[in-house]
């Protein structure tokens, strides 16, 4: 267990590294302290740049200033450096109203890019037990666990960053998964109906048809008979990509 004096020294050094305000540290050479701050800052900036390459192209003015404000004022919680960029999302949402007003899709874009990092780095998850046959509407199914849905206000998953400034708010959904064979993270633009269907099927033990009917009812599509055949096509597409399986 660390002594109180050691903890206090570490805290003082970390605070200095963040804000650059000179402080007295017993045994430290003041002329060397700026090098610690520079090195730590470079690590943080590199992690943010690596996690958010598209966001940098979208935020054409103010990205470096945002990094500096985040570094100077945010007390990071994750001990793993690769997890640290996730904290930028909440920081921006809580503290950067002016920047969000200038770049309305900023939060969605940060969430979208972080999803790729998280899926790529997440621990391996076992596939649930499943049958080999392709699922039909009457079947109960299981889903690939290394898969995530993202509900968005802006179409950041299918729009070049240079055109996001003109993007209109709406309801969008992105499906992302990590390929078991390659480890690559893939994305698919899907409708809100399909997104709701996946949320229902993942939380309730229903057949494809029952989950689809529940999603259709929620969205006011019950009288549109086309949703059923469209849903079968969607399930076939997921099955081809090894994202949905017939239950045993």
UniProtKB/TrEMBL annotation:
<dbReference type="InterPro" id="IPR044922">
    <property type="entry name" value="DUF2063_N_sf"/>
</dbReference>
<feature type="domain" description="Putative DNA-binding">
    <location>
        <begin position="9"/>
        <end position="92"/>
    </location>
</feature>
<protein>
    <submittedName>
        <fullName>Uncharacterized protein</fullName>
    </submittedName>
</protein>
<dbReference type="InterPro" id="IPR054098">
    <property type="entry name" value="NGO1945-like_C"/>
</dbReference>
<dbReference type="Pfam" id="PF22106">
    <property type="entry name" value="NGO1945_C"/>
</dbReference>
<feature type="domain" description="NGO1945-like C-terminal">
    <location>
        <begin position="149"/>
        <end position="238"/>
    </location>
</feature>
<dbReference type="InterPro" id="IPR018640">
    <property type="entry name" value="DUF2063"/>
</dbReference>
<dbReference type="Pfam" id="PF09836">
    <property type="entry name" value="DUF2063"/>
</dbReference>
């Amino acid at each position: 267990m660390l002594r109180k004096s050691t903890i206090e020294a570490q805290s003082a050094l970390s605070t200095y590294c963040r804000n650059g305000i000179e402080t007295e540290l017993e045994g430290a050479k003041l002329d060397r302290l700026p090098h610690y701050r520079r090195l730590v800052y470079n690590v943080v900036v590199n992690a943010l740049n690596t996690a958010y390459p598209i966001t940098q192209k979208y935020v054409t003015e103010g990205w470096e200033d945002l990094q500096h404000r985040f570094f100077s004022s945010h007390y990071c919680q994750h001990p793993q450096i690769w997890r640290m960029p996730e904290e930028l999302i909440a920081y921006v949402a809580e503290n950067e109203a002016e920047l969000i007003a200038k770049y309305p899709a900023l939060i969605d874009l940060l969430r979208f890019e972080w999803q790729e990092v998280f899926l790529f780095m997440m621990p391996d998850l076992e596939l649930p037990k499943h049958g080999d046959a392709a699922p039909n509407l009457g079947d109960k199914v299981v889903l690939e666990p290394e898969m995530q849905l993202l509900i968005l206000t802006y179409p950041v998953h299918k729009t070049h960053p240079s055109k996001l400034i003109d993007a209109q708010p709406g309801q969008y959904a992105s499906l992302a998964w990590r390929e078991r064979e390659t480890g690559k993270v893939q994305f698919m633009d899907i409708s809100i109906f399909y997104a709701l269907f996946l949320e229902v099927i993942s939380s309730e033990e229903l057949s494809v048809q029952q989950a689809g009917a529940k999603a259709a009812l929620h969205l006011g599509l019950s009288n549109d008979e086309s949703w059923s055949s469209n849903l079968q096509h969607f399930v076939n597409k997921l099955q081809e990509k090894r994202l949905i399986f017939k239950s045993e």
